[in-house]
Design a protein that fits this description.
Largest sheet: 2 strands, antiparallel
Mean pLDDT: 82
Radius of gyration: 15 Å
Number of helices: 5
Distance between the termini: 24 Å
Helix content: 55-70%
CATH architecture of one domain: Orthogonal Bundle
Strand content: under 5%
Low-confidence stretches: none
Shape: globular
Length: 85
Amino acid sequence: MADAAEEEDPPGYVEAEVREFFDKFDSDGSGNVNPDEFRELVRGAEPGMEDEAKEEALQELDGDGDGEISFAGASSTLVVVWQRV
């Protein structure tokens, strides 16, 4: 039987995976996911998601209220969600 510690991801692994995923949707390379990029991300991940739910999610992830999602501002939330998937 495998030891539980052997099954855990190495430190930083999840964050690196989340960063790679984030960067795929930062199509303009700005370091932020703008509303259009976010809607594209959601369209692929959750095709049936209502527009109102998309806007609520965008607002939750937009930590500084500038209308865009920065990796630094959203990474802790994204890591939690990633680990649940």
